[in-house]
Please model this.
Amino acid sequence: MSETWVRGFLSRLDQMSPDDIVPDFAEDACFRIGNGAIAVGLQSIRHAIEGRFGRLRSTRREARVISCYPGTVMIEADVYYVDDQGNNGSLVEATILHFEGDRIVDYRVFY
Model:
């Protein structure tokens, strides 16, 4: 994947619409946030993404580092958010994406 694709993906994440994100995943993909449970398959991934977005009003990612390798992308980003209570916050996010073809097969994010 290219840096242009990655920036577009991050922009879609910030739109907080699972309908714009889930199609990037393979049918049997895995999705995991930190040490949380692993979501496997599109329905489980959609549910995990909806749960995460349900606790946020908005997000904005500023990628600091994007490293693209064959089949793998690593991203370091500053994330600014407003939670469901209206509180502002920020954190550093490290994301590892593994691909088969043009679909994500493994998505891991750490804060």
Observations:
- Strands lie at 25-33, 39-40, 56-69, 72-83, 88-100, 103-110.
- Residues 95 and 109 are 4 Å apart (CA to CA).
